[in-house]
Amino acid sequence: MIDQADIAAHSIAAHLGIPVVTVALCLIMNEDPFQPLWGLDPTPVPPALTPANRHWRSLATYLMEPYVRCAQRYRERVGLGPAPALGDFWSRLAQISQQPEGFDFPRLLPDGFHFAGPFCNPSARRPVPFPWERLDGRRLVYAAFGSMVNGDLERAAAIAEACDRLDVQLALSFGGSRPPGALAGLAGDPIVVSYAPQIELLARARVMITHAGLNSVLECLSAGVPMVAVPITNDEPAIGARIAWTRTGVVVPSNACDAPRVQAALEAVLGDPGYREAAGRFQRAIGAGGLGRAGDIIEQVLATGRAVTDGRVGGPARDLRA
User: Fold this and answer.
1) What is the rounded CA–CA span in Å between residue 34 and residue 49?
2) CATH 3.30.930.10 fits 123-285, yes or no
3) Distance (Å, rounded) from C-alpha 115 to C-alpha 105?
4) pLDDT higher than 80, residue 164
5) Among positive and negative, which fits the CA dihedral 101, 146, 256, 165?
6) What are the residue boundaries of the structural domains of the chain, listed by start?
7) pTM of the model
8) Measured between alpha carbons, how far is 42 from 104 in angstroms, rounded to an integer?
9) What is the mean pLDDT of residues 145-159?
10) How far apart are CA 313 and CA 54, in angstroms?
């Protein structure tokens, strides 16, 4: 099993005669002429063949070129022959994504591509203490910004002020970047913790305020919880665009994350049941999660040595927005 982002390892496995299954842990990288390449925020939404998208595709291709050239040299040296396109580096037996079907823009995908759903195993997580006794019965808003870019005190203050104005209870996790005491005095006296039991909190939350990291977004969809997304870096703007496209949440630009805008986004998500209904459709489609589905596909490859298809030959991803 090789991550889709690692194009070199697929060629090494092919040279050694080892069957390969491609696994997409991040947003899928499969090319489509109407979309920017992986991780780039499409303009407009849904994507179209615009000058902006042509520019971003050209830039992404340019940035990938050194890696592709290195892999091509290796393939020539060991007699594999060139890979004409990026997708030719990936498995022809099975490609498995932890995105649920529908959480992407309509695009053409190869036969043998599978939207398995999140590779999340809640039972494998260590218990995280939380002051459950402080929950007071108000609508719960859970806010967390992952483990990498989560130390912005101004953003925390804006979120706390917005929640205080709406009379909802806020639980805020800072992922260990700051001690809870560093956020003393936030409006509304929110519950502030270094780490939070995210799965358990999502079971109670009405909305999650998130940086739009893929793992947190998938956990929201698995719980049927709509989002207010504040994308910050990396592929988060592209994930935020998919949240807006699927109407599973509202996006607030990180450079405009002030209390009035967060309040307006929360009011929209809390006041319109369509957002929770959209998240609920993904929850039902995900079911028990993608680990079992992925395992079944991989075992079928091992048992047969043949491509595992789902009956879709070059067809578009199913649209779960309706």
Assistant:
1) 5
2) no
3) 13
4) yes
5) positive
6) 2-119+289-304, 123-285
7) 0.90
8) 11
9) 79
10) 26
